[in-house]
Amino acid sequence: MGEILYHFFVYPGLLFAGVIGGLLAWFDRKVTAQVQFRKGPPLLQPFYDFLKLLLVKETILPARGSRATFLIAPILGLFGATAAGTFILLPLFNINIGFEGDVMVIFYLLTIPSLTYIIGALASGNPLASVGASREMKLIISYELTFLLFFAAIVLKADQHMQMSQIIQMQAQSGPFISSLSGVLLFIVGVFCIQAKMGMVPFDQAEAETELSEGSFIEYSGTVYALVKLTRYIMLFILPALLVGFLISGFNLSGTGIIWAILKILAVVLLMTLIRNTNPRLKIKQAMRFFLIGMNGLAIVAIILTYLSL
């Protein structure tokens, strides 16, 4: 029990994933600043933001709605992200205590943060938050099917193994999945899915600062908003790590392999950052069409190519 709690709360769970996610958030903001010809924030700015919300800013509860649900939702979202991150990172760090079928557990755990954003927004009683929740629901309906097809294709490429560590081991023996045509298509699908899960442009309709003033999170402040921030930091690390584990052979944490592991994560985050800085926000119907037709079609083609061993 002590080992499980250590993995969940310290390494590679809550504390470790939160710190690395904070550093990646700085990297994302720094690249964004360079694209926009600005200097950008200092290295520790994401941690300053988190600590200010956690320790300094007042937590204001909405006058309407369900206060208990409003407060519990960010806690559940943080739990989902941390649990998913633990299952993803343990095999990547060669701590093989997973089980057959943990891939599907990861899939369901990764849906929890998005669902809690909806629950918290609806519990706030704010009409703008409700609009944001409505948009988030439509996005989930769109990209979760694509994400499920992405997982299904990975399982097929791994000879129907449904354990994260086995998927990584297969790539260590026969080469990364991304070296095949179906792997390249799945990488494209995966990048856009995690872009939507992170609520990054062009899929930030649920927040849309210029339209909804943060939408789903408009009523959050202080400590509870700090938990939302921490959840975002963790997701910014574990989602690219999932993509690396599924398609790019995972991590080799020995010698120069450590540098390659860092570069793999940075490359995925850099790609996501460039996408969000070079594309306008889509309308919600455009985003739904993009996933339901375009990305689903691409995922199905990848599945067919996988059957053909391509």
Principal-axes geometry comes out as globular
N-to-C CA distance: 43 Å
* Unreliable stretches: none
Helical percentage: over 70%
Average pLDDT score: 90
Domains counted in the coordinates: how many?
1
How much of the sequence is in beta strands?
under 5%
Biggest beta-sheet profile: none
Total DSSP helices: 12
What's the order of the H and E elements?
Answer: HHHHHHHHHHHH
Rounded Rg: 19 Å
Strand-pairing-aware structural class = mainly alpha
Strand runs, count: 0
Description of the molecule:
With 310 residues, the protein is mainly alpha-helical. It has one domain (2-307). The protein has 12 helices and no strands. The protein has helices at residues 2-9, 14-35, 45-56, 67-92, 102-124, 127-157, 164-174, 181-197, 209-212, 222-247, 257-277, 284-307. Helix 6 runs parallel beside helix 12 (284-307). The protein is globular. The chain starts with a helix and ends with a helix. The model has no long low-confidence stretch (mean pLDDT 90).
Please summarize what this structure is:
The protein is mostly helical and 310 residues long.
